[in-house]
Amino acid sequence: QVQLVESGGGSVQAGGSLRLSCAASRSIFSINFLGWYRQAPGKQRELVAASTGGGSTNYAESVKGRFTISRDNAKNTVYLQMNSLKPEDTAVYFCMALAGRDYWGQGTQVTVSS
To answer: How far is the C-alpha of 65 from the C-alpha of 83, rounded, in Å?
Structure first.
């Protein structure tokens, strides 16, 4: 079982940056899939960025070149660095870990104003 706690959300102006953190309750070294998702009001939850155990990363087209996912196995934490934020990035951001089944955090709100 894995408990996930996100932090780092907030309100920024367009063009600004935020770094989200997702702290896991146990080692993430053996977790092959860690992802950041987001859900905007009235929209479906979508995958924003993912990190696999093999070291590869994947990004939604809409955030490529602006967002970076990384993991610190020593701290059991996965990060999402978000730069050049746009109003359309406004959403609740969730961390997900795939470890036998999917585990989700409670989400953190990101609001980008124009």
So the answer is: 9
